[in-house]
């Protein structure tokens, strides 16, 4: 099972051992930033589905959109400045910015998906 997850993780992540969690002596299939992003994405989607149950079919306010921009901007700033060699990030910051990004993606995708779903269900 680990081998399958490792191969799948390789399609979406660089899998750098220094930037990955290690559980039970084995490296996780995605890095810490990706772990934060996927975990926050799934958690946010679950919370939105549980509490809004398809009622959130448009973006409710400028603050909502501002939070999305903040989440995407945080990961771009952290990853971009590290990639350009301006500074070295750390794993805590990678986890936090990944989680902000995953949350932002879920907040962006959920209303669009609900809107599409409602459009398909109309007779």
Furnish the topology, listing elements before pairings.
Elements: H1 2-12, E1 20-23, E2 26-31, H2 32-52, H3 62-83, H4 91-121
Description:
With 123 residues, this protein is mainly alpha-helical. It has one domain. It has helices at residues 2-12, 32-52, 62-83, 91-121; strands spanning 20-23, 26-31. A hairpin with a 2-residue loop joins strand 1 and strand 2. The protein is globular and about 45 Å long.
What's this entry about, in short?
With 123 residues, the protein is mostly helical. It has one domain. The model has no long low-confidence stretch (mean pLDDT 88).
**Number of helices, counting only DSSP H or I runs of 4 residues or more:** 4
Portion of residues in helices?
Answer: 55-70%
Query: From N to C, what is the helix and strand string?
Result: HEEHHH
Overall outline: globular
Q: Return the structural class.
A: mainly alpha
Strand order of the largest sheet: 1-2
Distance between the termini: 44 Å
- Low-pLDDT stretches: none
| Biggest beta-sheet profile | 2 strands, antiparallel
The share of residues in extended strands comes to 5-15%
The number of domains: 1
In total, how many beta strands? 2
Mean pLDDT value? 88
Radius of gyration over alpha carbons? 17 Å
